[in-house]
Amino acid sequence: MDPEAARTARESLDLAFHMSNILDTGLDRHTLSVLIALCDQGLNPEALAALVKEIPKEPQPPPTTQP
Amino acid sequence: MEVSDQQTIIDLVKELVLRLLPPHSNTKSNSNQSLKYAMRILSSRMTPSISIDDSAIAESIKRQLVNEGKSSDALNFADLFTKFSSKSGPGSIKNKWAVIYLLKVVSEDRRNEKKSDSRVSSGFFASTVNGGLPNLLIGDENGDLRKTLDYKSRGNGGGGVLLVSKILNVRESAISEYVNLVKEENEVFEGVLVRDVLYACQGIDGKYVKFDKVLDGYVLGESIKVTRATRIMVRKLCELGWLFRKVKGYISESMDQFPSKDVGTIGQAFCAALQDELSEYYKLLAVLEAQSINPIPLVSEKVHSGNYLSLRRLSVWFAEPMAKMRLMAVLVDSCKVLRGGEMAGAIHVHAQHGDPLVQEFMRRLLRRICSPLFEMVRSWVLEGELDDIFAEFFVLGQPVKAESLWREGYRLHDGMLPSFISQSLAQRILRTGKSINFLRVCCEDQGWADAALEAAAAVGTTTRRGGLGYGETDALEALVVEAAKRIDKHLIDVMYDRYKFKDHCLAIKRYLLLGQGDFVQYLMDNVGQELSEPANTISSFKLAGLLESSIRSSNAQYDDSDMLDRLRVKMMPHGTGDRGWDVFSLDYDSRVPLNTVFTESVMGRYLRIFNFLWKLRRVEHALIGVWKTMKPNRITSHFLTKQEGVVKLQFISTLRRCQVLWNEMNHFVTNLQYYIMFEVLEVSWADFVDEMEAAKDLDDLLAAHEKYLHSILEKSLLGERSQILSKALFALFDLILKFRTHADRLYEGVHELQRAAQPSLSSRGKTKSKTWVGRKALTQRAGELLQNMGNDLNAIAKEYSSSLEGFIAQLPLQQHVDLKFLLFRLDFTEFYSRLRLNK
């Protein structure tokens, strides 16, 4: 990438990181960058959000929590 | 380069998973498992469920931040977002919205995880407030969702399968959730309620909806558990039922009362029209009932047939019938106590409305209601028939004798006059029918039927029933005007031609009002002798005979015998002490139909005028009689010259005084006579003749005749305002008559003297001594006579002049302009005025 593009990308990432902090998403910069790349590829953001939510819980046993 | 793309994606996902996993977990198997899981998740949701609009998402995020009280954060975010969106060109993010959305969802998830609240409603609530779809969460909070999708959750492990199926039925699960909620809150199904409402709108109590007398309406029982919204809706729909009840109640009441109490034809027509409208309403209700059998679909089902009936749909259907029923109920209320034409008028007032629906409805209704009324008008105007059993028509008839048929037989009843028929039209209607009846009864004329047919043909309707209806008031008016015109003309023609009204009036004028001079003269001559007797000794037969002879001896004999036959002598009721002069009068006998004009009171007024004129004539006659005796050549100059000085002087002066007085009286009487005959009678007659020519119908004729009589009475000082004056006048007449007797006596005395003084041309021998009266005695007697007479004459003269003065003084005070002419004539040399001034 040429420096211009790199700069743009970096700034965009910075902005997105700030926004995500405001929204208190708990994502770090690197994860966010991966997510952004995936979004750009055209994946459904809802699915990605689901991923973000579910995967950290994965080691837990199959959900039995029934109110 | 799909493969490479895919590879890139896979790599990225792998990395993501790695990063997301908690650091101290068993990496290898977990990561594989996680990877598989991740792929599954990704494959399940290919397209996002909201539209691509990053600014909207940003807005919602901002709003949410503000709601949470973090307004500075919101500002910051806004700032960042603008900068973020402005980045473009190589290296920038292409799917900005996706990123923003991702952030949003992640933050929401985190937030929700932090919350311990797991109930359904808050889950719904939160997501709807956030402005996105109801984000039915793929989380453990959703207990109910779990319930319904429980069967799906069995199977191979992991929350994976469960999660997928949950994600699939998110929307539907929300809807079935709602359905359960509705079922919990409502005890009764909506379909049942709809059917109950339909029953209520026919006046029948349903299973749950009953008529409550206290509240005066159809209500859903208090004990039944339904939502408040449903209750209110049911109440509103049942207003139709209440209105229906009212209208039906009125109809059945009227129908019940029909035989006993008179509801009237118009009332019946009203009920019939209402029932027609109600049958239309029943048709609508039948269709709705058929539809209500179809089950009401739940919100989640797709409906292919639209023909089900819910409360909402019912309210839409009911909009128009509600308006109509309300209108009918208003009409019923306003017409509860009215009948006949009044009812039609009240309903007509309600028809003045701007809404075309209302106007159309009212027009239909009124057409039915007013048909009996219009029928009655038609038959009255064209045939003179009044078949009105229930007294609803605005023309009232009462049975009277033939002669008062015109004046009192029929009249208008304003109470029953509907408001769309004006007063003048009603008057014309009344007159037309009256004329037909009058012609039929009094004149025995059948020609009016032709006139009626002509009238109908001219207007374009027929004389048959049902020609006219409401809304055609113009046509009715045209018909009435035509009919009135023709029938009036016919009536006038009949009056003038067959019954010779004009000729009769003229005859009355000539005889009763002493127009025929020579006849009056002869009558006076013949009858005058008789009438000096006391009234109760006079026989009317004799007078009748004298009347006959005077007719024959004058020009009156050439008159129409029909008129002459009606002329007869009438003796008024008299007391003792009345002379014949006071009670004598002529009468004119008028039969039907002329006695509508010449009624009793009218003839009475003619009588008064006759009396006055008769008195005047009598006075005139008396004066002329005196004149005859006063002719100077009766007194021989021989006799006069033979007298001695004093007596002669006395003689001459007395005679002269007598003559002067006579002259005055004559002047007065002549002028008064002239005034009465010409200025009063002839002028009034000329006016009356003009008006008779111009009269269009009998009412006009009657009015003209009234005016004629009234003016005569006023001008000849017989009216109420001139009572003082007429008293003075009669006093003058009495004086004149007294003068006549005195003058007669004077001249008789003179002639006796003369005869006595005559040399006995006719004397025979034996009477010589008796008839020879000494000259001295003669002179003495003459002197005495003349003295007495002179005194009498003086007295009369004084009285006369004072009375006359009084009379003349009062004349200018009269209102009537014509009396000034009388004054002018009497006083044209201003002799009397100057006399008064000098006093």
From TrEMBL, chain A:
Q: Which GO terms describe its biological process?
A: gamma-tubulin complex localization; microtubule nucleation by interphase microtubule organizing center; mitotic spindle assembly
Q: List UniProt keywords, sorted A-Z.
A: Cytoplasm, Cytoskeleton
List the GO cellular component terms: gamma-tubulin ring complex; interphase microtubule organizing center; spindle
Q: Write down the Pfam families for this protein, in alphabetical order.
A: MOZART1 (PF12554)
Q: Where in the cell is it found?
A: Cytoplasm, Cytoskeleton, Microtubule organizing center
Return the InterPro entries for the record. MZT1
Family to which this protein belongs: Belongs to the MOZART1 family.
What is this protein's name? Mitotic-spindle organizing protein 1
Highest classification ranks of the organism = Eukaryota, Viridiplantae, Streptophyta, Embryophyta, Tracheophyta
TrEMBL record, chain B:
Q: Which GO terms describe its molecular function?
A: gamma-tubulin binding; microtubule minus-end binding
Q: Origin, by domain of life?
A: Eukaryota
Its annotated compartments are: Cytoplasm, Cytoskeleton
Keywords in alphabetical order, please: Cytoplasm, Cytoskeleton, Microtubule
Q: Establish whether keyword Repeat is in the entry.
A: no
**Domain (Gamma tubulin complex component protein N-terminal): residue spans on this chain:** 194-497
A Gene Ontology biological process noted in the UniProt record is: spindle assembly
**Gene Ontology CC, one term:** spindle pole
Query: Record's family?
Result: Belongs to the TUBGCP family.
Put simply, this protein is called Gamma-tubulin complex component
Q: Tell me which species this is from.
A: Kingdonia uniflora
